[in-house]
Structure formats: C-alpha cells, structure tokens
Amino acid sequence: MSSRINIARPQPSAYNVDPHGLSNSRPSSGYRSANPDDPLEKLRAFSKTVEDNIEIYSQPLKPHLPAIGRFLIVVTFLEDALRILTQWGDQIWYLQQHRHFPWGISHFFLILNVITMLVGSSAVILKRYTEYAVGGLLGVVIIQGFGYGLIFDLNFFLRNLSVIGGLFMVFSDSMVSRKALFAGLPTISETDRKKYFLLAGRVLLIFLFLGFILQGQWTFVRLFVSVLGLVACVMVAVGFKAKWSAAFLVLVLSVFNVFANNWWSVDSAHPQRDFLKYDFFQTLSIVGGLILLVNMGPGGLSVDEKKKTY
C-alpha cells in the first residue's frame, strides 16, 4: 500500500524593502519649493536680477578697473606733491614757524616727501616694484601726520586709515601675478598673504565713511544715506555681498565728493579751497581702493567665500 505525503508549500511573503530595519520610519515630506509670494524670496530674486544685470553691463569696463583703481588711489599723492612744489614758500614758512623745523630740515622733509610721492605713485600706476612703492607711500602718510601735527586730528586720522586701506588693496592686487622670490623656502603662500591684506584693506577702507557720518549737520537725507552707507560698510568689512556693497559706496562717495568738496567753486585766494581740494583727492583715493575691491572681490577671509565652501 502506498502512502502519499502532503508537503505544505510556504506561501510567498510580501517583499520587505528594509529587512534589517535601518531606514528612517518617518514618511518623507518631500522637497518643499520656495514660495514665490514670500517677501524675502521676492527680495532675493530682485537682488539676483540686479546683480546679473550689473555683471552683464559692466563687462566692457571690467578690464580697465584695475588701472582706474590704481590711478585714483595715488592721485592724492600726486596732487600733494604738486601742491608742495607750487606752494614751496608757504610750506617752508609753516614748517619753520608753526612746527619749529630747523632751516634745512624743513627743506629736506619736503624734498623727501615730493620725491617719494612722485616715484611711488608712478611705480603703482605702472605696476613696477609695487611692494616698495606701497611701503614708501605708507611712510609718507605716517611722517606727514607727525610732521604737520595732524596725527591726533580725528578727521585726518580716519581719512588716512582709509588711504592706507587703499594701498593695501594695491599690494593685494600686485600679488595676483607675482611669483615666489625664493622657491622651496617655508614661507606663507601668496594666497594666504593676499587674504590677510585684502581683509585689512576692506576694514580700513570704510573709515572714511565713518568720518563722514561723524561730521556735519544732520538732515533727513543725510541720516538716510548714513544708515545705508553704514550697512554697506559693515557688509564690506565682513565680506558679505562685498562687491555690490563696495559699488554702492563708490557711487555714494563720488556724488558726495562732487557736491561737498567742490573746491573749483571757491576763490583761489580763499584758504578753504586747499582744504576742500585735499579732501576731494583723498576721497578719490578711497574710491580707487573700493574699485579694486569690486574688481578683485573680498578674498578668502569673507562671508562670500565661506558661502562657496558650504
């Protein structure tokens, strides 16, 4: 007699996509798209459109920005050298009578300043021996502050900090194509040095605008421009949207310079003319530094650069 064994087949179970239980048990919420009606999104989109348009229409000018910036930075030194030469007698009299310079020392002081400013400015414009040129012009800023007794004048101090910032921008610009002098020696890389000089230049450049905020009478327009300018200065210092903040400061300072320091409208015999002329060309120098910032960008030590990393 034969027997039949019934073997029960196992029923196929449902497919388990995560047999080990390693996945997140929460249901996925999916990608949430930006709300086009959100005011912040509208502002971001408008800002992006403005930046793109500026980038497109400024292309023809971009190759010339470094040369324009370098010339404007040193134009205050060229004007100062010309003023010393054309007012030689008045300069000697002031140094000897008011600053008590001995005869001969006053002459040497002025000659040294004129030669350094002319040679240093020419070297910066021609991009030759830029490091030495910047060092010489920095020396002129310092010794003039002590020589003319203006080192403790707040307006002079803030303006010259900005001029020094412009010179740092020139030094940073010269590092772009410079080769290492001593290959193989353990030195700070050109990229690192450029980052630090760009940071110092950015921070120092904004002091002129801070001086503008501190002086003069307050009006509604002045308050409005000062608030916008202060925000732009902070953005330049930290390197957030630095190019466009610097471009805004270039526009504001250029308009302010033409209307506030209009030395050409003052009679040549009026003593105020020289002060306005001095302020006008110093402001041009800071504008030149900001133009170099627009061209080069804020460098590695900035919010803009960190945003690219993350």
UniProtKB/TrEMBL annotation:
Compositional bias (Polar residues): 22-32
Keyword line: Endoplasmic reticulum, Membrane, Protein transport, Transmembrane, Transmembrane helix, Transport
Main subcellular localisation = endoplasmic reticulum
What does UniProt give as GO cellular component? endoplasmic reticulum membrane; endoplasmic reticulum-Golgi intermediate compartment
Compartments, as annotated in UniProt: Endoplasmic reticulum membrane
Q: How does it sit in the membrane?
A: Multi-pass membrane protein
Which residue ranges run through the membrane? 105-125, 132-151, 157-176, 196-214, 220-240, 247-264, 284-303
**Region Disordered: which residues?**
1-38
What InterPro entries does UniProt report for this protein, alphabetically?
A: Surf1/Surf4, Surf4
Instruction: From the UniProt record, list the coiled-coil ranges.
Output: none
Report the record's Gene Ontology biological process terms.
Answer: Golgi organization; protein transport
* Keyword flag Endoplasmic reticulum: yes
Describe the family membership recorded for this protein in Swiss-Prot or TrEMBL: Belongs to the SURF4 family.
Q: What is this protein called?
A: SURF4 family-domain-containing protein
Species: Crucibulum laeve
